């Protein structure tokens, strides 16, 4: 070995730490390229900053970051025209694990004007050593801006490194990775371009990848979210939105802001103008992208709660290290504060957009079912979300809100009434509404599966309890309205006979005054789930019938209906009303959009009844 080559031992327990970096710190091997690109971009920003006070350090025109794969030599070279490193810098920054040149440099910026501070990206700490995930040997040739000599740092990542004089025509750094046999995929130009587009598409320094001897652009180089709103056109934001989500619609809402103070981050978020092709009901994680100083970190940071997972975009912060791991993301309080701030901002935007009823209706049709999930699962934001909910109604056209419903409540009305089912048009014709319509009482029609759950958590709105009209008995006598017409039958003998005939299918049979035109209707017990929840349980193979979770329904009969009056007369002389009782129950089930218990037997009973009639 030449006398000019110096061999050094790594500092800071290099064996253990290198093993950690290579095998445990990163889950994706391609991360190495993100780290090295980040360091190169940071070095370029640092040189630009220092040139403000020393013009001699100015980088040449057209400076860029070049990535050159060489399959024949099995090497990958990453070159920049940044600030470069002296021999002492190489020892200090690359010879000691977890010592950050960027962090040390950042301390010098405390008194610099804000406009002059470069946007620092990489941190020469453990990130550099991710190169050893894919390389069996790493060589770094670097020349410090303003210096004449260059130095070569080399290591196989096994406990030591060498330093030797080198040649480099201009200031900057060349990193040569001698790739491992199982990492040759990273010598494919298309693979490299894909990684750059994924992780560093918006790094402002131009990045090229050499393909067939030609340097091809690999990044867009414009971080729109870092610009002020006045600098970005609507066309640019729409193009970015479409690129981000691989969709072609217009965003319904665009949120672009910068938070400064206790938190420092920039956000560019979009609420889509249409449902994605992949249903948002299935995927429950937010995919807003987290960037650190323009560099993509992950889209799995859960920057928004699941009930805002339709929101797309980027959050870029200064307050996290670039090489933060996913495990660290889950634990850091900084990210928790960013989550709260971003969620609050999106909620504020929804409240503002809700003032335009027509526009908000389109949003609600696309994503309303997802927003309702927040009422169910998010106690912190439940009360904020309640006024944003929209519903179909038995009394008004289009969508209505809880505040509007409460404003229309009748004198003497004690609760907000809801009816749950699968289809709003079918619900609007339901016999369940007859008594409420007669009294002029409005009922909200709920048709999403989540509607079976969230009212239980919200419980009340503006001190008005939320009640399903199919659950328990509801007394509307305090509400002024038209009185029921017709003579009521004496049900004293009929009800016990019906209950006995249906003892395996219903919990009770009782008279009701909430029907006008229909003979019967089903209701749920006071304490059990309402009818829609019972249907969901039954479809899932649980509960009623054949189980206790869903309970058994209550059959309510209208004593003023001609059919019930006739059955009451029969009950005076007959003791077997099994067929009639079964027919009443099946009629009630059909009215609620359900199927008869035994369709064949139901058809037979109907035919016999028609023949008798």
From TrEMBL:
<dbReference type="InterPro" id="IPR036890">
    <property type="entry name" value="HATPase_C_sf"/>
</dbReference>
<dbReference type="InterPro" id="IPR020575">
    <property type="entry name" value="Hsp90_N"/>
</dbReference>
<dbReference type="InterPro" id="IPR019805">
    <property type="entry name" value="Heat_shock_protein_90_CS"/>
</dbReference>
<feature type="region of interest" description="A; substrate-binding">
    <location>
        <begin position="1"/>
        <end position="326"/>
    </location>
</feature>
<keyword id="KW-0963">Cytoplasm</keyword>
<protein>
    <recommendedName>
        <fullName>Chaperone protein HtpG</fullName>
    </recommendedName>
</protein>
<dbReference type="InterPro" id="IPR037196">
    <property type="entry name" value="HSP90_C"/>
</dbReference>
<keyword id="KW-0547">Nucleotide-binding</keyword>
<keyword id="KW-0346">Stress response</keyword>
<feature type="region of interest" description="C">
    <location>
        <begin position="536"/>
        <end position="613"/>
    </location>
</feature>
<dbReference type="Pfam" id="PF13589">
    <property type="entry name" value="HATPase_c_3"/>
</dbReference>
<comment type="similarity">
    <text>Belongs to the heat shock protein 90 family.</text>
</comment>
<dbReference type="InterPro" id="IPR001404">
    <property type="entry name" value="Hsp90_fam"/>
</dbReference>
<dbReference type="Pfam" id="PF00183">
    <property type="entry name" value="HSP90"/>
</dbReference>
<keyword id="KW-0067">ATP-binding</keyword>
<keyword id="KW-0143">Chaperone</keyword>
<dbReference type="InterPro" id="IPR020568">
    <property type="entry name" value="Ribosomal_Su5_D2-typ_SF"/>
</dbReference>
<comment type="subunit">
    <text>Homodimer.</text>
</comment>
<comment type="function">
    <text>Molecular chaperone. Has ATPase activity.</text>
</comment>
């Amino acid at each position: 070995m030449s006398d000019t080559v110096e061999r050094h031992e790594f500092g800071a327990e290099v064996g253990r730490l290198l093993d950690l970096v290579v095998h445990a710190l990163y889950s994706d091997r391609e991360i190495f390229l993100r780290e090295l690109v980040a360091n190169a971009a940071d070095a370029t920003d640092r040189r630009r900053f220092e040139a403000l006070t020393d013009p001699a350090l100015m980088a040449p025109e057209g400076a860029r970051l070049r990535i050159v794969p060489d399959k024949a030599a099995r090497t990958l070279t990453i070159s920049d025209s940044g600030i470069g490193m002296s021999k002492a810098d190489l020892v200090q920054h690359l010879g000691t694990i977890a010592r950050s040149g960027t962090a040390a440099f950042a301390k010098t910026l405390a008194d610099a004007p804000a406009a002059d501070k470069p946007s620092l990206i990489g941190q020469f700490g453990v990130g550099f050593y991710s190169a050893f995930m894919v390389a069996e040997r790493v060589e770094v040739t670097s020349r410090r801006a303003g210096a004449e000599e260059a130095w070569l740092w080399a290591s196989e990542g096994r406990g030591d490194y060498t330093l030797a004089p080198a040649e480099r025509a201009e200031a900057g750094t060349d990193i040569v990775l001698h790739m491992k046999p199982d990492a040759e995929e990273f010598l494919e130009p298309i693979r490299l371009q894909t990684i750059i587009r994924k992780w560093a598409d918006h790094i402002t320094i131009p990045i090229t990848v050499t393909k067939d001897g030609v340097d091809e652009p690999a990044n867009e180089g414009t971080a729109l979210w870092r610009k002020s709103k006045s600098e970005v056109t609507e066309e640019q934001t729409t193009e970015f939105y479409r690129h981000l989500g691989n969709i072609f619609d217009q965003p319904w809402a665009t949120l672009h802001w910068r938070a400064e103070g206790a938190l420092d981050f920039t956000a560019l978020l979009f609420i889509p103008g249409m449902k994605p092709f992949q249903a948002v009901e299935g995927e429950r994680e937010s995919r807003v992208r987290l960037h650190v100083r323009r560099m993509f970190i992950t889209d799995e940071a859960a920057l928004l709660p699941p009930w805002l997972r339709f929101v797309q975009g980027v959050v870029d912060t200064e307050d996290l290290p670039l090489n933060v791991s996913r495990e660290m993301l889950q634990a850091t309080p900084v990210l928790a504060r960013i989550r709260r701030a971003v969620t609050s901002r999106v909620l504020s935007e929804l409240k503002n957009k809700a003032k335009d009823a027509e526009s908000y209706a389109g949003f609600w049709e696309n994503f309303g079912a997802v927003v309702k999930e927040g009422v169910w699962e998010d106690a912190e934001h439940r009360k904020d979300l309640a006024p944003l909910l929209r519903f179909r109604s038995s009394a008004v056209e289009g969508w209505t809100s809880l505040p509007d419903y409460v404003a229309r409540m009748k004198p003497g009305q004690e609760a907000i009434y809801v009816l749950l089912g699968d289809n709003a048009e079918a619900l609007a014709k339901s016999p369940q509404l007859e008594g409420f319509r007669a009294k002029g009482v409005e009922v909200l029609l709920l048709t999403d599966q989540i509607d079976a759950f969230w009212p239980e958590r919200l419980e009340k709105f503006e001190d008005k309890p939320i009640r399903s009209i199919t659950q328990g008995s509801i007394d509307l006598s305090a509400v002024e309205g038209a009185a029921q017409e017709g003579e009521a039958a004496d049900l004293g003998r009929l009800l016990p006979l019906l209950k006995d005939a249906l003892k395996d299918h219903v919990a009770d049979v009782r008279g009701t005054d909430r029907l006008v035109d229909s003979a019967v209707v089903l209701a749920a017990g006071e304490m059990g789930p309402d009818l829609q929840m019972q249907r969901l349980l039954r479809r899932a193979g649980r509960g009623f019938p054949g189980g206790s979770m869903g309970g058994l329904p209550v059959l309510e009969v209208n004593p003023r209906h001609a059919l019930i009056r006739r059955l009451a007369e029969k009950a005076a002389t007959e003791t077997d009303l099994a067929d009639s009782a079964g027919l009443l129950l099946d009629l009630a089930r059909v009215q609620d959009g359900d199927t008869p218990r035994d369709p064949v037997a139901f058809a037979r009973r109907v035919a016999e009844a028609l023949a008798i009639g």
